[in-house]
Amino acid sequence: MPDPLDLSLLRSFVAVIECGSVLNAAARVGRSQSAVSMQIQRLEQEIGRPLFRRDGRTLRPNPAGEELLLHARRLLRLSEEAMASLRSPEDAGLVRLGVPEDYAAYLLLPALSRFAQDHPRAEIELTCEPSAALVEKLQAGRLDLAMITRYPHQPFAVLRREQFVWAATPEHQAWLRDPLPVALFEAGDIARRYAVEALQRADRPYRVVCSSRSLHGLIAVAQAGLAVVGLTESSVPPGLLTLGNIEGLPALPMFDLSLVAGLGEPQRMTAALHDFLQRELGRM
């Protein structure tokens, strides 16, 4: 039976590929350049074939190296998950987390991916609903944590601020129509309220051509050229143009985002996720 692959060799091997050179890889893994070179030579001896080709000054994996890279990354990830689990056996638990749909994809999910790397035994149960519904679920004890858009009267601390904007396809120029066709979230949503209030203050005639609780539904209507839509600026997808005074549309306010904990003393994993999101999202 062949000897098992040495994880320290695989770690240096992956670093060389990702950094493009032995010198840069040495800085990442905390070894000397000569030590990393020796590790690569040893790995190639154990595999029984070369793993790299030179492209100028850059080292790139050959077909054998590409194949090994897939296994190496998986083995290293499993090793890290095992160590994290053994070092913190109590680091497990379920967190029921709520978030509006327009914050989930671009803001929350990347952060949750990073949290999962540090807490592989954590279970996140995600609920995507409007902010008002999430607050009700928190108060009813059906959520442990929620990221919401804060209404002015609510006492929650502000985590971050997001700009609310108009968006539409440049090809159809829906903003030139009168009355203005708009796609809005359903009644009761703060985004709908702010959009309608801005249009009324500007005395801009409008008609609601789509009312939906789905972010993707509203974006699809705007992409089809049927309406102008109000979105947080960070969630405007490619292909939609952000609009403003130049296009004759009234300015929209900033949204205050809050991270709100449920009732009672939070469980250990809930507290860990709360603190992580405070750090990660608050500094972005």
TrEMBL record:
InterPro entries in alphabetical order: LTTR (IPR050176), LysR_HTH_N (IPR000847), LysR_subst-bd (IPR005119), WH-like_DNA-bd_sf (IPR036388), WH_DNA-bd_sf (IPR036390)
Keywords: DNA-binding, Transcription, Transcription regulation
Domain (HTH lysR-type): residue spans on this chain: 5-62
GO molecular function (one): DNA binding
Domain of life: Bacteria
Gene3D superfamilies: Periplasmic binding protein-like II, Winged helix-like DNA-binding domain superfamily/Winged helix DNA-binding domain
Family in the record: Belongs to the LysR transcriptional regulatory family.
Name of the protein: LysR family transcriptional regulator
Organism taxonomic ancestry: Bacteria, Pseudomonadati, Pseudomonadota, Alphaproteobacteria, Rhodobacterales
